[in-house]
């Protein structure tokens, strides 16, 4: 039976893994200065990037929610994997074979089994191959015709992994069982389901299939389109919710589109699988689609991270909806969700209410690109659709339309645009500007009152606290240089209790002198922290840039530690002076002289430290 992974193998995986490559699969990273990178945190919703990555130390930390660690920890948190599953995923990408110490003391051997998630992904990968091979069979003629009628030949089918589920109740089940997958695994994966007889049958039958991939490119489910009139099932049938497939988080085509979305700063939202294919083939490779559910909050969070949608970056979301009533309703719902984006949001409606696939067939690739280029701001569309429901020839209709439309203007994130849209709304309604502006202002006040909540503000760090943090950063980031100099300065020199706790944890981890640095050292200190606050602070300090230009040298360490001790001494001197001043030198002669002597000694030490710390931090 396999035991724990050998420590040297864990260290080798960490050494061979680029945390930037791992995190970039799901988060767009941009330079944060000092060699660090930043992006929108994948673990909580935020508008301004607080998620920092340090390539030099192969660690990450979010200043917003406190999550931090190495590449193994990132996969554990981002994809809900166990430590072993994350380690095996990274080892596989690095081409490494993990060895395990056995409990009996026998020689280390490769692990014979993998975690559930990897098994489910492996089953889907095998299913993709099976279905893809079936697409070329005689029974799949209808599927090939369906693709061809929509402008997709063999190359496109292969590019997007299209397949066909044959006219059989258990062809896939038998195929995958022969490959070693259990009935429980196939049922959990959503690929098969138990029949009344107790046997296993395929979930998809006589249907054209599209594999649905996650951001990393792993197949996690399928979308299946009905082809035959005697199929009494739904037009589209998707994989059910499974441990790896959550439809509210999934966007079809995201594996193809993610790099172009980040590069171009925009994403195009379409409604179907063939629409995604049509847009990509027409030269708009940023298109994605939801899978059996409406575009919602979780989808938005996926795209915001790719777009780096923040207060300092303006990306574009372009919705494509049919011009019918259902499409208009979807667009208005999208406007409500649009408030979660800082970037600009648009709508593109194709001529004659054609979807992108139909438009490409009818008018060619250029027409698809022109449709998207001709997008209009979603707020314009939302306002037009809102006021169109009222009779503007009547006073009652104009007033009610104003009441319904004013909150939309109030929700526009770019506050400088609100007055212009208020004027536009007044013109569209045929009303004076003043009542429309009042309605917008009232909506703004109402929204602000709902959202207003006391905001806890952290007081700016004092100069001494900044020095204390800098010393700890040196210990975590540059332990080889900090070494004995850091260890010689005790925790009594730290005035902040949490910083003092981290200093004690460094000592409990064996001291800086015992470390050669890297992720292992940071994790060791983190593990020694007695509470979550200290663990979060270690992760934060491990990626926070040092206040030094260029390379850190021993002189910088010496100056920092001298200023650390000098600040602590200054506090002790101030307290001692206060105590001496309160004493009567006649009535308390002995105590007065003793304290005065101690004060003189401390001031001598402080003078020496000031000389060491000459120069700016």
Automatic annotation (TrEMBL):
<dbReference type="GO" id="GO:0003899">
    <property type="term" value="F:DNA-directed RNA polymerase activity"/>
</dbReference>
<dbReference type="GO" id="GO:1990077">
    <property type="term" value="C:primosome complex"/>
</dbReference>
<keyword id="KW-0548">Nucleotidyltransferase</keyword>
<dbReference type="InterPro" id="IPR036977">
    <property type="entry name" value="DNA_primase_Znf_CHC2"/>
</dbReference>
<dbReference type="GO" id="GO:0000428">
    <property type="term" value="C:DNA-directed RNA polymerase complex"/>
</dbReference>
<keyword id="KW-0235">DNA replication</keyword>
<keyword id="KW-0479">Metal-binding</keyword>
<dbReference type="InterPro" id="IPR034151">
    <property type="entry name" value="TOPRIM_DnaG_bac"/>
</dbReference>
<keyword id="KW-0240">DNA-directed RNA polymerase</keyword>
<protein>
    <recommendedName>
        <fullName>DNA primase</fullName>
        <ecNumber>2.7.7.101</ecNumber>
    </recommendedName>
</protein>
<keyword id="KW-0639">Primosome</keyword>
<dbReference type="Pfam" id="PF08278">
    <property type="entry name" value="DnaG_DnaB_bind"/>
</dbReference>
<dbReference type="Pfam" id="PF08275">
    <property type="entry name" value="DNAG_N"/>
</dbReference>
<dbReference type="GO" id="GO:0006269">
    <property type="term" value="P:DNA replication, synthesis of primer"/>
</dbReference>
<dbReference type="GO" id="GO:0005737">
    <property type="term" value="C:cytoplasm"/>
</dbReference>
<dbReference type="GO" id="GO:0003677">
    <property type="term" value="F:DNA binding"/>
</dbReference>
<keyword id="KW-0808">Transferase</keyword>
<keyword id="KW-0863">Zinc-finger</keyword>
<dbReference type="InterPro" id="IPR013173">
    <property type="entry name" value="DNA_primase_DnaG_DnaB-bd_dom"/>
</dbReference>
<comment type="function">
    <text>RNA polymerase that catalyzes the synthesis of short RNA molecules used as primers for DNA polymerase during DNA replication.</text>
</comment>
<dbReference type="InterPro" id="IPR037068">
    <property type="entry name" value="DNA_primase_core_N_sf"/>
</dbReference>
<dbReference type="InterPro" id="IPR002694">
    <property type="entry name" value="Znf_CHC2"/>
</dbReference>
<dbReference type="InterPro" id="IPR006171">
    <property type="entry name" value="TOPRIM_dom"/>
</dbReference>
<dbReference type="InterPro" id="IPR006295">
    <property type="entry name" value="DNA_primase_DnaG"/>
</dbReference>
<dbReference type="Pfam" id="PF13662">
    <property type="entry name" value="Toprim_4"/>
</dbReference>
<comment type="subunit">
    <text>Monomer. Interacts with DnaB.</text>
</comment>
<dbReference type="InterPro" id="IPR050219">
    <property type="entry name" value="DnaG_primase"/>
</dbReference>
<feature type="zinc finger region" description="CHC2-type">
    <location>
        <begin position="41"/>
        <end position="65"/>
    </location>
</feature>
<dbReference type="Pfam" id="PF10410">
    <property type="entry name" value="DnaB_bind"/>
</dbReference>
<keyword id="KW-0804">Transcription</keyword>
<keyword id="KW-0238">DNA-binding</keyword>
<dbReference type="GO" id="GO:0008270">
    <property type="term" value="F:zinc ion binding"/>
</dbReference>
<feature type="domain" description="Toprim">
    <location>
        <begin position="265"/>
        <end position="351"/>
    </location>
</feature>
<keyword id="KW-0460">Magnesium</keyword>
<comment type="similarity">
    <text>Belongs to the DnaG primase family.</text>
</comment>
<dbReference type="InterPro" id="IPR013264">
    <property type="entry name" value="DNAG_N"/>
</dbReference>
<dbReference type="InterPro" id="IPR019475">
    <property type="entry name" value="DNA_primase_DnaB-bd"/>
</dbReference>
<dbReference type="Pfam" id="PF01807">
    <property type="entry name" value="Zn_ribbon_DnaG"/>
</dbReference>
<keyword id="KW-0862">Zinc</keyword>
<dbReference type="InterPro" id="IPR030846">
    <property type="entry name" value="DnaG_bac"/>
</dbReference>
């Amino acid at each position: 039976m396999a035991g724990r992974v050998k420590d040297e193998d864990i260290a080798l995986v960490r050494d061979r893994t680029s945390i930037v490559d791992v995190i970039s699969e799901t988060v767009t990273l941009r330079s944060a200065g000092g060699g660090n990178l930043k992006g929108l945190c994948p673990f909580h919703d935020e508008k301004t990037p607080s998620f920092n990555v340090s390539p030099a130390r192969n660690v990450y930390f979010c200043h917003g929610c406190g999550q931090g660690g190495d590449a193994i920890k990132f996969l554990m948190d981002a994809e809900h994997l166990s430590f072993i599953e994350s380690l095996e995923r990274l080892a596989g990408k690095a081409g490494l074979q993990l060895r395990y110490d056995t409990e009996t003391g026998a020689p280390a051997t490769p692990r014979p089994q993998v975690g559930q998630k990897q098994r489910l992904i492996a089953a889907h990968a095998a299913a993709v191959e099976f279905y893809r091979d079936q697409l070329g069979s005689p029974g799949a003629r209808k599927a090939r015709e369906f693709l061809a009628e929509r402008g997709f030949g063999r190359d496109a089918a292969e590019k997007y992994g299209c397949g066909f589920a044959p006219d059989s109740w258990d062809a896939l089940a038998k195929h995958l069982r022969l490959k070693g997958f259990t009935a429980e695994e196939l049922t959990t994966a959503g690929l098969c389901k138990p029949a009344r007889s107790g046997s296993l049958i395929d979930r998809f039958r006589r249907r054209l299939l599209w594999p649905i991939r996650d951001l990393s490119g792993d197949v996690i489910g399928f979308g299946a389109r009905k082809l035959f009139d005697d199929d009494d099932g739904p037009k589209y049938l998707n994989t059910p919710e499974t441990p790896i497939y959550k439809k509210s988080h999934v966007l079809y085509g995201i594996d193809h589109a993610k790099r172009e979305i980040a590069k171009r700063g925009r994403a195009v939202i379409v409604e179907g699988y063939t629409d995604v294919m049509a847009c990509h083939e027409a030269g708009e490779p940023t298109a994605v689609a939801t899978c059996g559910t409406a575009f919602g909050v979780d989808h938005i969070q996926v795209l915001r991270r790719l777009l780096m949608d923040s207060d300092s970056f303006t990306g574009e979301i372009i919705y494509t909806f049919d011009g019918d009533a259902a499409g208009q309703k979807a667009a208005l719902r999208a406007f409500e969700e649009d408030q979660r984006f800082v970037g600009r949001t648009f709508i593109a409606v194709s001529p004659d209410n054609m979807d992108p696939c139909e438009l490409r067939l009818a008018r060619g690739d250029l027409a698809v690109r022109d449709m998207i280029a001709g997008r209009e701001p979603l707020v314009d569309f939302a306002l037009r659709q809102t006021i169109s429901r009222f009779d503007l020839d009547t006073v009652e209709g104009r007033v009610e339309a104003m009441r319904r439309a004013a909150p939309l203007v109030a929700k526009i994130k770019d506050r400088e645009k609100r007055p212009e849209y208020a004027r536009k709304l007044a013109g569209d309604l045929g009303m004076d500007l003043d009542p429309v502006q009042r309605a917008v202002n009232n909506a703004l006040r109402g929204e602000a009152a709902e959202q207003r909540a006391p905001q806890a503000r952290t007081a700016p760090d004092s100069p001494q606290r900044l020095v204390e943090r800098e010393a700890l950063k040196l210990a975590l980031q540059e332990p080889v240089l900090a070494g004995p100099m850091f260890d010689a300065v005790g925790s009594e020199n730290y005035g902040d209790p949490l910083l003092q706790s981290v200093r004690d944890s460094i000592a409990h981890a064996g001291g800086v002198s015992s470390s050669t640095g890297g992720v292992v050292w940071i994790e060791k200190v983190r593990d020694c922290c007695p509470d979550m606050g200290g663990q979060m602070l270690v992760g934060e300090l491990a990626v926070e840039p040092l206040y030094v230009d260029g390379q850190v040298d021993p002189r910088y360490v010496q100056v920092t530690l001298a200023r650390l001790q000098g600040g602590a001494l200054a506090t002790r001197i101030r307290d001692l002076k206060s105590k001496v001043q309160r004493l009567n030198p006649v009535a308390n002669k002995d105590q007065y002289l003793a304290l005065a002597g101690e004060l003189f000694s401390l001031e001598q030490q402080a003078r020496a430290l000031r000389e060491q710390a000459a120069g700016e931090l």
